[in-house]
Automatic annotation (TrEMBL):
It comes from the Archaea. The active site is at K252 (n6-amp-lysine intermediate). ATP binds at E250, R257, R272, E301, F341, R420, K426. Its cofactor is Mg(2+). InterPro entries: ATP-dep_DNA_ligase, DNA_ligae_ATP-dep_bac/arc, DNA_ligase_ATP-dep, DNA_ligase_ATP-dep_C, DNA_ligase_ATP-dep_cent, DNA_ligase_ATP-dep_CS, DNA_ligase_ATP-dep_N, DNA_ligase_N_sf. This is DNA ligase. It comes from Candidatus Nitrososphaera evergladensis SR1. It catalyses: ATP + (deoxyribonucleotide)n-3'-hydroxyl + 5'-phospho-(deoxyribonucleotide)m = (deoxyribonucleotide)n+m + AMP + diphosphate. The keyword Cell division applies. It is an enzyme of class 6 (ligase). Residues 585-606 are annotated as: Disordered. Belongs to the ATP-dependent DNA ligase family.
Length: 606
């Protein structure tokens, strides 16, 4: 298949933000794609080569990418750098460098999807010493035979900058329409995607074997399932209202969500983002091997503990487990336990269709038989409640035990992979004093540190995600809550993402001394949300000419590297939080007013 139809479709997609138009373009492209290439084309339009859980990345440094452009457009490195500075986008820079060289008709052979994919694959799989040079040569070889437009997308893809603004559900719609003629079939595809996390394979199955084969897709060991997520609520009453007459309440532990896949002779662990994290927790894998079953998929929260006291330790302790070397030592110094809260598969059978209550019983039974003796494998504490007051009591005990709050779950609910609904709700402790929730925001800029912080960053500019435009809009500048260790760590991490000007996907009215690629997500808490003329999050949503900003923000100590930037708190969520805060304030003012009147009338009667 020629690469050209992809380039043309990508071009059209970049010009529209209408979901209908995006879907139409995708449908046309998918119809044109031979069935045996459907998986590859599906990955390419998502800017990947494989499903995320494979963890395969191109790994080409920006400098090498610029060198590849220079070599294939016969320009000097400084010329290419100047073009890049002017354009601010690697793809646009490649096109301009190639265009002015007249590289539009001289290429020798048609670029094909097979060749592009195969070369990308080689780039991604080249590792070890000298790999950057090899990667560079591979990219340059593609550019040499490309038109400037093709080169533009090749470079965008290689550098992870291909942003077509298509969400997974748009691809699912397009697949349903292209291969079944009926958008309603998307549900079937979505179910298959939710249990396999692999859109390419679902697409290929549909194109080659039809809808019935997609319907038959089952949970498979070692393929992560998209996690069920929770909605947030602010009070125990609200949580109870969302349930039937009863609610299962569990501790909400402050650790890392892990999906355990236990096979007959090995265990794999996946993060909330479905990345393989088996290497971080060999001790958890070992404990999982001791389960009295042949195969199982379970979910739980890994938490750092003080083995002497049994006390849970802060989330940051888990960071010590994210290392390639010295994991044995880290296991010794930073012990963890896993608190299981769900079972999705057991000995050849999916269990997601069982109601929560039955899954919980099955979980208890399965863990009881483990040889681990409950040292590492624990089940998350739980009670069943019928009154909000019981939730409040359990919440108090959760907080006393070092938890973030509680999760309230509908006892009759099945496990809804990939869904965020009110079947699970989260109630965090912060709501009493500050904003109802923490926010996960992306670092997009910084000011240099002064005084004690010279040589580090003094304040970080943070942004929320606007999924409609696929842009990060600034919402606050944060300078408190950092320890010296954080400051050092941030400096080292952020240095890798420094860019020479504000990133094209960042929108802010603030001027900064340093700009970053929007990559790192951190968690902050704040006292309230206010209107702001210089922050762009939710601009005009509440008041013309004003965005929303956080007041007195503080870093909580959590770097959310389990979240991708697009998983950050959205600008719409901030609007909701703002409205909720107004409501709480006005209710508080009202009750104060009533109290005052009551007092006045009592005094009058006296
Ligand atoms: P979300 O996952 O809802 O987008 P998030 O990643 O910020 O947001 P939280 O708001 O912290 O997560 O709440 C959900 C997370 O809580 C789960 O993904 C899981 O890691 C954690 N968690 C802790 N205890 C439990 C529990 N008992 N049941 C389910 N999740 C739990």
């Amino acid at each position: 298949m020629d690469f050209q139809p992809l380039v043309e479709t990508f071009g059209k997609m970049e010009e529209t933000s209408s979901r209908l138009a995006l879907t139409d373009h995708l449908v046309a492209l998918l119809k044109e794609t031979p069935a045996d290439l459907i998986d590859k084309v599906t990955y390419l339009i998502q800017g990947k080569l494989y499903p995320d859980y494979e963890g395969i990345e191109m790994g080409l440094a920006e400098r090498m990418a610029l060198r590849a452009i220079a070599s294939s457009s016969s320009r000097s490195m400084s010329e290419v750098e100047a073009i890049y500075r002017k354009k601010g986008d690697i793809g646009d820079a490649a096109r301009e460098a190639m265009e002015s060289k007249g590289q539009s008709t001289l290429f020798s052979e048609q670029m094909t999807v097979e060749r592009v994919y195969c070369t990308f694959d080689k780039i991604a799989k080249t590792t070890g010493p000298g790999s950057q040079e090899t990667k560079l040569r591979l990219v340059a070889s593609l550019l040499n035979d490309s038109t400037p437009d093709e080169g533009r997308y090749i470079m965008k893809f290689v550098m992870g900058a291909l942003r077509l603004g298509i969400a997974d559900y748009t691809v699912l719609d397009a697949l349903a329409i292209a291969f079944t003629g009926d958008k309603a079939n998307r549900k079937v595809l979505e179910n298959a995607y939710n249990v396999s996390s692999d859109l390419g394979t679902v697409a290929k199955l549909l194109a080659t074997k039809g809808l019935a084969a997609v319907k038959a897709v089952q949970i498979t060991l070692f393929k992560p399932i998209r996690p069920m997520l929770a909605e947030r609520v602010s009070t125990a009453e609200e949580a109870m209202e969302r349930m039937d007459s009863r609610a299962a309440i569990e501790y909400k532990l402050d650790g890392e969500r892990v999906q355990i896949h236990k096979g007959r002779d090995r265990v794999e662990l996946f993060s909330r983002r479905l990345e393989k994290i088996t290497d971080h927790y060999p001790d958890v894998s070992k404990a999982a091997m001791s389960l009295a079953c042949k195969e199982a998929i379970m979910e739980g929260e890994v938490v750092a503990v003080n083995l002497q006291t049994g006390e849970y330790l802060p989330f940051q302790q888990l960071m010590h487990r994210r290392r390639k070397h010295g994991i044995e030592e880290a296991m010794e110094n930073y012990p963890v336990v896993i608190n299981l809260f769900d079972i999705l598969y057991l000995d050849g059978k999916s269990r997601t269709e069982l109601p929560y209550e039955e899954r919980r019983k099955l979980l208890e039974k399965t863990v009881k038989g483990a040889k681990d003796n409950g040292i590492m494998l624990k089940i998350v504490p739980q009670v069943v409640a019928t009154e909000p007051a019981e939730i409040d009591r359990f919440m108090a005990s959760a907080i006393e035990n070092g938890c973030e709050g509680v999760m309230v779950k509908m006892p009759s609910s099945t496990y809804r992979a990939g869904a965020r609904e009110y079947l699970w709700v989260k109630l965090k402790r912060e709501y009493r004093t500050e904003l109802a929730d923490t926010l996960d925001l992306v670092i997009v800029g910084a000011l240099h540190g002064r005084g004690r912080r010279v040589g580090k960053y003094g304040a970080l500019l943070l942004a929320a995600y606007d999924p409609k435009e696929d842009i990060f809009r600034s919402v606050t500048k944060v300078g408190t809550g950092f320890t010296d260790i954080h400051l050092d760590q941030f400096y080292r991490e952020l240095e890798k993402h420094v860019i020479h000007q504000k990133h094209a996907r960042v929108d802010t009215g603030m001027s900064m001394e340093v700009w970053f690629e929007p990559v790192i997500v951190i968690e902050v808490i704040a006292s309230e949300i206010t209107l702001s003329p210089s922050h762009m999050a939710a601009m005009d949503a509440i008041k013309e000419g004003y965005g929303l900003a956080l007041r007195f923000p503080k870093f909580t100590g959590k770097i959310r590297d389990d979240k991708e930037p697009e998983g950050a708190t959205t600008t719409d969520e901030i609007v909701t939080m703002y409205r909720r805060q107004l409501k709480i304030h006005s209710e508080a003012a009202k009750s104060k007013e009533q109290e005052k009147k009551k007092k006045e009338s009592e005094e009058g009667e006296e």
